[in-house]
TrEMBL record, chain A:
Function: Potential subunit of the gamma-secretase complex, an endoprotease complex that catalyzes the intramembrane cleavage of integral proteins such as Notch receptors.
Name of the protein: Gamma-secretase subunit APH-1
Gene this chain is encoded by: LOC106499504
Record family assignment: Belongs to the APH-1 family.
InterPro entries: Aph-1 (IPR009294)
Family annotation (Pfam families): Aph-1
Subunit structure and binding partners: Component of the gamma-secretase complex.
TrEMBL record, chain B:
Gene3D superfamilies: Presenilin
Protein name: Presenilin
Name of encoding gene: PSEN2
InterPro entries (UniProt xref): Pept_A22A_PS2 (IPR001493), Peptidase_A22A (IPR001108), Preselin/SPP (IPR006639), Presenilin_C (IPR042524)
Class of enzymatic activity (EC top level): hydrolase
Record key words, sorted: Endoplasmic reticulum, Golgi apparatus, Hydrolase, Membrane, Notch signaling pathway, Protease, Transmembrane, Transmembrane helix
Subcellular location: Endoplasmic reticulum membrane; Golgi apparatus membrane
Organism: Apteryx mantelli (North Island brown kiwi)
TM region positions: 95-113, 146-167, 174-196, 208-228, 235-251, 257-276, 400-420, 426-445
Biased composition (Basic and acidic residues): 330-348
Record-listed E.C. numbers: 3.4.23.-
Amino acid composition bias (Polar residues), ranges on this chain: 55-71
Domain notes: The PAL motif is required for normal active site conformation.
Record-stated family: Belongs to the peptidase A22A family.
Length: 256, 459
């Protein structure tokens, strides 16, 4: 335990997100604000869903195991739906903000596009979601203890870190997909995001059978990544050019 | 203030052209108390929060009044669009310029709270919160905390009014001396205690000569940086450190419920002191405007950057304001344990059309005016987050939630400022969000997240 596990899990969970933040978001003040506001929206959605769950639990019999499990499942699903609803609300807010920025700018175009905002909003959601899942674990990992001493899985910290990482990525891609769907009025993209989110959350019910939760999540992440990349203007050609380090025109990456 | 000064001097000497006429048009000749004027005067500290922490150690430093509030007056530029765009463009940048120090201060406070036991131990109370909370019944405890709050807020109000009176009757030396004493206490005594506790926590031995050397250097450089001249970043670092120290003192000595009620009450007081016509803070600003003086520039965190090199116009008129910026930043008068005062002076020379005779003027105005935020705001934000870290049953989620809530409150406040272009207090929105998120995260979200974590579910 202690420092090795702490640093290892921290960097597994938050390393890629930190890289994304440092290289694409940290330079631009507007993006940082959008990031923090996205985190705030996620937080509010969590608050409301916790409220509902809390009321449901308090109103029910605490000794009924099945009922509590059912309420937990309901809580998770409701939370997912509420997160997506708040993503939509955030989209609406950012739309208004873009209109304001356009109106105020000198040359009639906003300093940041809705696609960039979608990316940053996704990262905001992901970071906050990951932080809330992982921070307490990391704080506990710093202290003494033995993982899984009562028969639980010994890979708890490691799998949590991997799950957090995939969730942060997923939120980023979902942000792009979702906003694109809202922009172009493609309801099926929005529905796909919601279904994917429900699927990922639902797959975590297989824990500690990690092959049932991590593998589908990573597969879904790859799918979402490809989809988001294609929607952002990427193509197989761009990837090839990038990999072969050929000079090309702008190869639009999400968030650039 | 500095911009106003520059405008007056430059408009007399520069040939009248687009730029200067815009400038002089914007700087009204008579500073009188009016909202519109406030907006055009740069560097207006509309609301100041001055706070002096009292501690049982120093009887002569009574707790100051807290005039709090932050105002971010936006300079009206003749070109509305440009100004608004500038506002927004600078708005984002200025928000980040405030996010960073506020975040740093909170990080220092939370790190200390989580590692050094001393600041979470109950070791008596300040004389400003005489009622104890060790009562068995909930009602009694609530009553005691409300009484504590009333006493604390009254002390703050009295101190604020006292300060305003002193300022009104030009007792600058008194204010000066008072502030020097208070920063001496902070920089030496509290630092000594802090260092002692940190060393105890990590079981590191330090001999007295080393200690004296370290504390002496730290304190002396701090006094110079804060009250006189010093590198900007060093000054900022010192201000952050003393805010953190002050916040730690509050976290240690304020009893639990009293702290929360005091935070709520201070936000309400802030709101009233800044927005009511006869509020002490507003009167302070008026007086400062009438005298055309900067209002307590030191003990206000300033992120201004100065570019005084490469000025084509070497005469004193052009250079005066630059000096002014430094001097006022360190003037003794500013040693008011300043108030939360935030103002952003937005440089107007970001317009894309430079005109030559005023190249100097532009260079001067090219300096980033930066944003200023009073230390009281730093302190109370850090108290909230620190209390959340100290008392939220070891939960980091609550601390994180409060942190995000406060940042968003700050962002909203600055946005409102840019929209309304008049003085607004910095505390209410952030503290409200912070309190709401603290209580709801601690009581609602924590059980939910704990249950999820125990089953390793992810939402």
């Amino acid at each position: 335990m202690t420092l090795a596990v702490f640093f290892g899990c921290t960097f597994i969970a938050f390393g890629p997100a930190l890289g994304l933040f440092l290289f694409t978001i940290a330079r631009d003040p507007l993006r940082i604000i959008i990031l923090i506001a996205g985190a705030f929206f996620w937080l509010v959605s969590l608050l409301l869903s916790s409220l509902i769950w809390f009321i449901a639990v308090k109103a029910s019999d605490p000794n009924d195991e099945q009922l509590q499990k059912g309420l937990l499942i309901f809580g998770v699903m409701f939370s997912v739906l509420l997160q997506e609803a708040f993503r939509f609300l955030y989209y609406k807010l950012l739309r208004k903000a873009i209109e304001g920025l356009v109106a105020l700018s000198e040359d009639g175009c906003s300093p940041i596009s809705i696609q960039q905002m979608a990316y940053v909003a996704g990262v905001g959601f992901g970071l906050m979601s990951g932080a809330f899942s992982m921070i307490n674990l990391l704080a506990d990992a710093l202290g003494p203890g033995t993982v899984g001493i009562y028969g639980d899985s010994q890979l708890y910290f490691l799998t949590s870190a991997f799950m957090t990482m995939v969730l942060i990525f997923l939120h980023t891609f979902w942000g792009i997909l979702f906003f694109h769907g809202c922009e172009n009025r493609r309801w099926w993209e929005i529905a796909a995001v919601v279904v994917m989110h429900l699927a990922v959350s639902g797959s975590t019910f297989c824990n500690p059978l990690y092959v049932g939760s991590l593998v589908p999540s990573y597969v879904l992440m790859a799918v979402a990544a490809t989809w988001a990349y294609l929607l952002s203007g990427g193509s197989a050609q761009n990837v090839r050019r990038f990999l072969l380090c050929l000079q090309s025109g702008a190869s639009p990456q999400p968030g650039s | 203030m500095m911009i106003t000064f520059m405008n007056n001097s430059d408009s007399e000497e520069e040939p009248c052209n687009e730029r200067t006429s815009l400038m002089s048009a914007e700087s009204p000749p008579v500073p009188s108390y009016q909202d519109g004027l406030q907006a055009s005067e740069a560097g207006e500290a509309q609301t100041h929060r001055k706070r002096r922490t009292g501690s049982s150690h120093s009887p002569n430093n009574a707790a100051d009044g807290n005039m709090s509030g932050s105002s971010v007056p936006v300079r009206e530029s003749a070109l509305e669009n440009e100004e608004e765009e500038l506002t927004l463009k600078y708005g984002a940048k200025h928000v980040i310029m405030l996010f960073v120090p506020v975040t740093l201060c909170m990080i220092v406070v939370v790190a200390t709270i989580k590692s050094v036991r001393f600041y979470t131990e109950k070791n008596g109370q300040l004389i400003y919160t005489p009622f104890s909370e060790d009562t068995p019944s909930v009602g009694q405890r609530l009553l005691n905390s409300v009484l504590n709050t009333i006493i604390m807020i009254s002390v703050i109000v009295v101190m604020t009014v006292f300060l305003v009176l002193l300022y009104k009757y030009r007792c600058y030396k008194f204010i000066h001396g008072w502030l020097i004493l208070s920063s001496l206490m902070l920089l030496f005594l509290f630092t000594y205690i802090y260092l002692g506790e940190v060393l105890k926590t990590y079981n590191v031995a330090m001999d007295y000569p080393t200690l004296i050397l370290v504390i002496w250097n730290f304190g002396a450089v701090g006094m110079i940086c804060i009250h006189w001249k010093g590198p900007l970043q060093l000054q900022q670092a010192y201000l952050i450190m003393i805010s953190a120290l002050m916040a730690l003192v509050f976290i240690k000595y304020l009893p639990e419920w009293s702290a929360w009620v005091i935070l709520g009450a201070i936000s309400i007081y802030d709101l009233m002191a800044v927005l009511c016509p006869k509020g002490p803070l507003r009167m302070l600003v008026e007086t400062a405007q009438e005298r055309n003086e900067p209002i307590f520039p030191a003990l206000i965190y300033s992120s201004a950057m100065m570019w005084t090199v490469g000025m084509a116009k070497p005469d004193t008129a052009a250079r005066g304001p630059s000096q002014q910026t430094w001097d006022t930043a360190e003037d003794g008068r500013e040693n008011h344990r300043s108030p939360s005062h935030s103002d952003s002076e937005i440089s107007e020379t970001r317009s894309p059309v430079p005109t030559h005779p005023i190249a100097t003027l532009e260079e001067l105005e090219e300096e980033e005016r930066g944003v200023k935020l009073g230390l009281g705001d730093f302190i109370f934000y850090s108290v909230l987050v620190g209390k959340a870290a100290a008392t939220a049953s070891g939960d980091w989620n609550t601390t994180l939630a409060c942190f995000v809530a406060i940042l968003i409150g700050l962002c909203l406040t600055l946005l409102l400022l840019a929209v309304f272009k008049k003085a607004l207090p910095a505390l209410p929105i952030s503290i409200t969000f912070g309190l709401v998120f603290y209580f709801s995260t601690d009581n609602l979200v924590r059980p939910f997240m704990d249950t999820l974590a125990s089953h390793q579910l992810y939402i």
